[in-house]
Write a structure and sequence with these properties.
Keywords: Heme, Iron, Metal-binding, Oxidoreductase, Peroxidase, Signal. This protein is an alpha+beta fold. It binds protoporphyrin IX containing FE and 2-acetamido-2-deoxy-beta-D-glucopyranose (7 copies).
Length: 524
């Protein structure tokens, strides 16, 4: 297992070439991918670390299950028609004989913790491949975002171990992969995990719930043993040496007279080949989907940004700047913000200083960050800011978000302290979610709305549906804060959906993606 944070690979992107601007719809995904541990951790690795781990106990391996889930979702793609692929349609396909076992539900169940209005289950499947492969010592799979979840089942066609080679190769070809690529992809997948007796008793010859026959001698290491065991004749891979008629790996690996297997037997070549073929695997999407650029760690990223009012009723701008430090020699940094007020004017002192949060290292396999907090009065509001980073060794770096500055709206401000989630079931068995927002008076903005993402459980489908339900907000108080009117909105929230996100919106302005988690249980 890799030690997080200590064996960081240096990053190769150039800040100036990176087209990302904040905010972006890949912000959450980027955080989940690179903030695996430490401060502000999302903790996706908890599901798969170490590589042999499963929260479901003996005879299971979550890392292998995550990779298998992505494959089964992807392989029903029809390249010519532009349908299927990584679209999480597998959530509707659980009753098909081609999708046996607990792996898919287990993967979806874990990923549901990170599933939200910004992040599709299909993107989380891709993230699962990245995280599992990396945890098992494999290469860094490049990751894009923007996959869209299917709303129903797609075509069938996942290869089964009893299929003949023509059938298997034809399905890979339909999905856009030739024989060489098929062999590579199967080898890269079957370096992890194995066959479960409970699902394939005829193959393992043992139907015990803990019977788990590994594909190679190092099932918890993403390495070329799947190839070398096969070539040197020592393999115990049940899909190679198992009963005749169900040894698809034997057919696949030998499909070109072992040429591809021989070409990827070297550890380094295997890793590089898998890096390429698994990236291609997770980028198979319906033709209606446009994936984002590759998600590299964002060098400078505002996080937890929130306007608020302090106890003396002054408008405040609060948040943190997350700074990538794994690409820096000098990590003794001064981080400042320079802002323009609500009307775009620059106040005489427009510098906001930050202070590094103690113990605020956050990290993943491929990035390490430090977080700089700020909380500053902005009585005339704020419309945008730039960020300067000054290393102690000298030089000032200015980050202007692709020249436009980091945009901030201060027309509607969600007020967490006044909001609440009352955890008492009403007549419908729902809880009562109350949001309070301050709306700027001088902008002639009326009729704010409270837009709640409601999660609904679906029979036979592990992943909930997400639907935005909007309702109006009413004037609550006009003189609490100078220049603002307070509005309140209520939502009768199904208990199942207690952990969700919501926006408060007025006109074209939104204070968005607020979490229901951590809200006070009583309203003030
Ligand atoms: C010819 C195509 C394939 C066939 C017929 C096939 C068949 C199988 C079978 C029968 C299992 C045992 C499942 C269980 O007992 O839980 C399995 C496991 C697995 N497959 Fe494949 N597979 C194919 C291709 C792939 C590909 C391309 C990948 C990924 C790149 C992949 C990844 C995995 C993984 C990681 C496991 C282990 C799951 C676990 O340990 O729970 N497979 N495969
Ligand atoms: C599959 O495609 C790759 C890349 O285009 C090519 O190098 C390889 O020779 C092809 N394999 C077969 C069997 O056509
Ligand atoms: C079946 O598999 C289980 C779990 O691996 C093992 O404990 C048991 O001994 C096996 N039974 C036979 C008959 O091999
Ligand atoms: C491929 O390798 C396997 C395992 O070593 C061997 O049994 C088989 O004969 C080889 N096939 C060819 C065509 O060389
Ligand atoms: C941020 O930088 C841009 C250009 O790089 C500049 O036009 C803008 O005025 C700056 N904003 C502030 C608030 O300093
Ligand atoms: C400007 O404000 C910042 C913090 O808000 C403060 O640290 C700094 O000393 C001020 N600069 C001047 C010249 O007043
Ligand atoms: C997967 O979860 C769904 C929803 O809970 C359930 O109906 C289905 O039976 C599960 N399938 C398996 C194979 O566990
Ligand atoms: C939610 O609570 C508020 C008081 O905080 C109340 O006015 C409102 O009627 C409640 N809504 C529902 C749906 O119970």
């Amino acid at each position: 297992m890799l030690t997080l944070g200590h064996s960081l690979v240096f990053l190769t992107f150039l800040t100036g070439l990176y087209a990302y601007t904040w905010p972006s719809n890949i912000d959450y995904l980027e955080g989940v991918m690179y903030q695996q541990a430490g401060y502000r951790r999302f903790g996706v690795i908890d599901g798969v670390s170490p590589c042999s781990f499963s929260s479901d106990g003996e005879g299971r391996q979550a890392a292998a299950e995550w990779v298998r889930t992505a494959f089964h979702d992807m392989i029903t793609h029809n390249a010519a028609e532009g349908t299927g692929g990584m679209d999480a349609s597998i959530m509707f396909e659980m009753d098909r004989p081609e999708n046996p076992g607990s792996a898919f539900n287990a993967t979806m169940g874990f990923m549901t913790n990170f599933y939200n209005i910004q992040t599709s289950m299909a993107d989380l499947f891709a993230l699962a491949v990245y995280t599992a492969v990396r945890t098992c010592g494999g290469p860094r799979i490049a990751m894009r975002g923007g996959r869209i979840d299917a709303t129903g089942a797609g075509l069938a066609g996942v290869p089964e171990p009893t299929d003949d080679l023509d059938t298997i190769a034809a399905q890979f070809a339909t999905a856009g992969f030739n024989t060489t690529e098929m062999i590579q992809m199967v080898a890269c997948g079957h370096t992890l995990g194995g066959v479960h007796g409970v699902d394939f008793p005829d193959i393992t010859g043992n139907d015990s719930s803990t019977n788990f026959v590994h594909f190679d001698s190092t099932f918890s290491s993403f390495d070329s043993a799947i190839v070398t065991d096969y070539l040197d004749g020592t393999t115990e891979n049940p899909l190679v040496v198992g009963p005749e008629g169900s040894n698809s790996d034997l057919l696949v690996f030998g499909a070109d007279g072992n040429a591809t297997m021989q070409s990827i037997s070297d550890a380094h070549t295997f890793s590089n080949t898998c890096q390429t073929i698994l990236q291609r695997m997770i980028e198979v999407v319906p033709s209606s989907v446009t994936l984002s650029e590759i998600i590299d760690p964002i060098p400078i990223k505002p996080v937890a940004i929130q306007m608020t009012f302090d106890s003396s009723r002054t408008l405040m701008f609060t948040g943190e700047i997350r700074v990538l430090i794994s690409n820096r020699d000098d990590t003794d940094l001064t981080v400042q913000l320079h802002y323009a007020d609500h009307d775009g004017n620059v106040p005489s002192n427009n510098t906001i200083s930050t202070s590094v949060i103690s113990y605020s290292t956050g990290y993943g396999y491929d990035a390490e960050f430090r977080f700089y907090a700020f909380s500053a009065p902005v009585p005339n509001g704020i419309s945008s800011f730039n960020i300067s980073v000054i290393p102690s060794s000298g030089g000032e770096e200015m980050y202007d978000n692709g020249r436009s500055g980091y945009p901030i709206q201060d027309n509607i401000v969600f007020l967490r302290d006044h909001s609440c989630l009352v955890q008492e079931a009403d007549a419908n068995g729902n809880w009562n979610l109350t949001a309070v927002a301050a709306v700027r008076n001088d902008a002639s903005l009326t009729n704010p709305s409270f837009d709640v993402v409601v999660k609904t459980q679906r029979i036979g489908i592990l992943v909930p549906s997400l639907a935005v339900e909007s309702s109006g907000m009413e004037v609550w108080n006009s003189d609490a804060y100078d220049g603002f009117t307070l509005y309140t909105g209520h939502h009768s929230l199904p208990i199942y959906s207690w952990s969700t996100t919501f926006d408060v919106t007025v006109g074209e302005y939104s204070d968005s993606f607020k979490s229901s988690g951590g809200l006070p249980g009583t309203c003030s």
